[in-house]
Write a sequence for this structure.
């Protein structure tokens, strides 16, 4: 982890904000998995644990893939403005980066039903662990949304066809809705402290 964090802190763009957002999704998934594991008397929690573990694996694979895409995007952006290949390369790389970030976003969305389930059936002694996991999930969703929007902005600036962007733009709205849901669950869990 230290090596990855060191790489994240370097001015190289790979890993970058999208990958960091995916890691936050993975952190959230691990805490959700822990809460599910501490809920042995409900078969729904055991099934949830298996799904969350699988999603965490998908998120980490998507993080790795995003790092490769980010590197290509950075290379395209680093081309000289005088290079005739710059415009199409930046456009294509921006769309590819948006698609890579969207893959992380779709994984993040898949955590929402699991969060709802654990808020309902999870071991009440672990409500705060669940809330912390959901805070990480919310941060991951927020980071994915911001990264996706930035990639889309660059893609549009470089005249990417709207047909390639429509689904990605729609995902931004879905991510905002998911963040609201997660925030509501966190608020409910947190209210048990007062």
């Amino acid at each position: 982890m230290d090596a990855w964090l060191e790489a994240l802190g370097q001015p190289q763009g790979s890993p970058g904000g999208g990958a960091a957002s995916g890691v936050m999704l993975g952190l959230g998934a691990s805490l959700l998995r822990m809460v599910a594991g501490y809920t042995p008397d409900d078969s729904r929690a055991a099934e949830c644990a298996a799904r969350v573990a699988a999603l965490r694996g998908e998120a980490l694979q998507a993080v790795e893939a995003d790092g490769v895409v980010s590197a290509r995007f950075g290379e395209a952006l680093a081309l000289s403005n005088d290079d005739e290949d710059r415009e199409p390369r930046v456009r294509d790389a921006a769309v590819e980066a948006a698609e890579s970030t969207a893959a992380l976003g779709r994984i993040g969305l898949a955590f929402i039903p699991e969060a709802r389930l654990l808020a309902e059936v999870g071991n009440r002694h672990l409500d705060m662990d669940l809330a912390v996991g959901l805070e990480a999930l919310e941060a991951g969703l927020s980071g994915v949304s911001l990264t996706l929007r930035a990639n889309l902005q660059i893609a549009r600036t470089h005249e990417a066809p709207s047909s390639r962007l429509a689904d990605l733009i729609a995902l931004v709205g879905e991510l905002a809705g998911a963040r609201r849901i997660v925030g509501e669950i966190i608020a409910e869990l947190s209210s048990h402290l007062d």
About this structure: The CA atoms of residues 142 and 179 lie 7 Å apart. The helical segments are 2-8, 17-37, 43-78, 86-110, 112-121, 127-157, 162-190.
